[in-house]
Amino acid sequence: MVAVTDTHHCPFCELIFPNVAELQAHIAIDHPDREVPDREY
């Protein structure tokens, strides 16, 4: 089993992603009308 030590929460819903690439893809697909906040990951 792989432990996830760093997770990335969607700022627009309750979903959590294991990496930034998946988070960015989710936002582009599921929240296309939202602006992604500037943030260090």
What Rg, in angstroms, do the CA atoms define?
A: 11 Å
The number of helical segments is 1
Q: Look at the helices and sheets and give the structural class.
A: alpha+beta
For the secondary structure, the number of strands is 2
User: Strand order, biggest sheet?
Assistant: 1-2
Q: What do the pLDDT scores average to?
A: 83
Segments where pLDDT lies below 50 for 5+ residues? Answer: none
Distance between the termini: 24 Å
Strand content: 5-15%
Order of helices and strands: EEH
Describe the global form.
globular
The main pleated sheet reads as:
2 strands, antiparallel
Q: Helicity level, as a percent range?
A: 25-40%
Descriptive notes:
With 41 residues, the chain is of the alpha+beta class. It has 1 helix and 2 strands, in the order ββα. Strands 1-2 form a two-stranded antiparallel ribbon. β1 (8-9) and β2 form a beta hairpin. The chain is globular and about 30 Å long. The chain starts with 7 loop residues before the first strand and ends in an 11-residue tail after the last helix.
Layout of secondary structure:
Elements: E1 8-9, E2 16-17, H1 20-30
Antiparallel strand pairs: 1-2
Give the tags:
41 residues, 2 strands, alpha+beta, single chain
TL;DR of this structure?
The chain has 1 helix and 2 strands. The chain has one helix spanning 20-30, and strands spanning 8-9, 16-17.
